[in-house]
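Standup notes, protein team

Yesterday: finished cleaning the Patiriisocius marinus set.
Today: Glyoxalase structure.
Blockers: none.

Input for Glyoxalase:
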Amino acid sequence: MKETKNYPKSFSHIGITVPNIKEAVTFYSEVMGWYIIMEPSTVKKEKETAIGQMCIDVFGEDWTEFEIAHLATSDGVGIELFSFPNGIKEAPEFNPFNTGLFHFCIQDPNIEDLIDKIVAKGGKQRMPIREYYPNEKPFKMCYVEDPFGIVFEIYTHSYELTYSSGAYSR
């Protein structure tokens, strides 16, 4: 009998579609401090190149070109930005109740300053900053929105620290 070993997979990257690739690279590199790994470039639908064929496999035949850029967080997680010329440029309605990606979360111990930077660059603070363990531990969180309407969360501490003590129990 074959024994299967399960182990935790690491997070490689997340792909985000934005209305303007250059504005998004500027926002995420300046506000989040993410490293620019690959400046914005154009990918064309062409079967002769590996990237062109790969994108045809993913997106189908109903496109001609798009822009892409790659950034990375301090811990090496990739942020892949896409901008399609014919896509809808407005953010979808925020609806966490439907199946699909709800949000992503980034971590910064200085949550107040980061929220101020996000708002100053055209984003929104969607809720007050909340504490997981009021008067016990300094673990805070807040949902925000980038200037393009993409909702994400900010934690002050790691996911493991936030939940390892049973964040919702007393």
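Follow-up from PR in the comments: The chain is about 20% helix and 30% strand.
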